């Protein structure tokens, strides 16, 4: 039987070059093939240095359920955004079980693509997500940094039992569609102790997400932590059992947000807790927007079918950059119910902020400022 050392695969031994110029994708897939074939736990080592890697997919099913990527260096995306930009994804794990990523920096080199998009030229590719886990179970991501993704930084799609901790996400505040961590169609996902600075949602929560725990997050710049947008499709899985706890929002466009399209849908949001949040000059600290309709196309005059119920906001304090700090804009056909505000204190320019409640019903506990409108 091979000893434990035999199950360590260094990408240098498969031809990877730490020069930042030679595409080492084949070396990474070569190391993966051997780690995946190993009947004992396997470790893929990426030593210090910059490794250029084009689009790459790591697929199961593997002979073991414990493959660890130990990344001491940096993975660099191609500088020409057209290489990845039409692909949609840069680094993909699909149908894997028991994969962990420890450490490392993923440099998406997205700045040029953002500039193209922000210039309004219109001929830019949509871009690539930096790291995608799809249809996978028992995933552990720790100490990973994602820099300047073209599109989303990290996506968890149709996965079960995922732990993300100590992650650092960095992109410019004006970088378009660079969500930090996006979760959809997944259950039992935990995101802990991470710092996210980006141009879109720090964390976005898509349809079919259940049993999600988010705790100890620094968010900003960015668009806040968002459930949604939901209800784009007529038949859509709901979101339930979500806890967002101990988050600081600094200069964000939103704080805690639930967003749905203003059109018919079978979607829902229920059993959500936003707790122990600090707002530092955040716009829209508490927001439900069920009238989302970009460019007013595809939903004229229609009401959202997404049913929002049993959402608690507890111990949310700080400063709002908008006069209306609590804004519940719910669906006229499916009003929000079971909204609970407990010990909320938000100020605007050293004055008590304002609240707006449309088609929303619920209760308050303790001290709630702005004056409750439920």
From TrEMBL:
Q: What is this protein called?
A: Polygalacturonase
Where found in the cell? Secreted, Cell wall
GO terms of molecular function? polygalacturonase activity
- Keywords (A to Z) from UniProt: Cell wall, Cell wall biogenesis/degradation, Glycosidase, Hydrolase, Secreted
Entry's PANTHER family? PTHR31375
GO BP annotation list: carbohydrate metabolic process; cell wall organization
**What does the similarity note say?**
Belongs to the glycosyl hydrolase 28 family.
Keyword Hydrolase recorded:
yes
Does the record bear Nuclease in its keywords?
Answer: no
Catalytic residues of the enzyme: 223
Subcellular location, principal: secreted
